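stuck on whats below:

***
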Amino acid sequence: MYPLAGHYLTIGTNLSVPISLILQNLLVILIVPLLLGVLTREYVERKHGEETYLKMKPYFSSVTLIALYFLIFIIFASKSGLILNNLIDIWLLFPIALLFYGITISLVLVLNKHVFHFEYGHHQSVVFTTVSKNIALTIAILVSVFGKEGQYMAVFPAIMTLFQAPLLMIYLKFSPAVKKWFND
C-alpha cells in the first residue's frame, strides 16, 4: 500500500514517487529479511532442535525493538532543533495518529474475525506486530528511497511513535470487550 498511497498523496505536488524504487526497497527491506528469517529458523530448528530455537526466539524481538529505538533516536537527535521549534505542530499530529491507529486497529479487528477467523490470542499478536511495525518500515523506505529529503519525511512517522504506545495501551484497556466480541 505504501507505493500507491505515496503516489496518491503527491498528486499535484512537485514530488515524484518512484513506485518501482519503492517496490525494490520493499523487497530488500521486507521480503529478503522475511525469507532470511524463515531460513534461519529452519536451519536452527534442524541443526539444534526446536527447543533451542524457542530459547533464542525472545531475543529476536528485543534486537528488533532496540534497532527501531536506535533508529528513532538518531532521527530525533538529528532533527531535534526542528522538533523543538515545532512542538505545537507535533501536537497537531495527534488527531492524525488517533485516526491512523483507530482505522488500522479497526481494519485488523474486522479482517481477523471475519476473513481470517482468528481466535483472540492470534488476533492480539497480529494487532501488535502489524500496527507497531508499520512505522519502522515507513522510515526505512523513506530514507532509502528519498535520501536526504527522506530524512525530513521520516520525522513524521518517527513522531507518530510518540503516540503509538499510549494509543496501544488504550486499545489494551478494551481487551475484555474485544475478547468477548471474538468469542461470540
Q: What stands out?
A: Residues 18-183 form one domain.
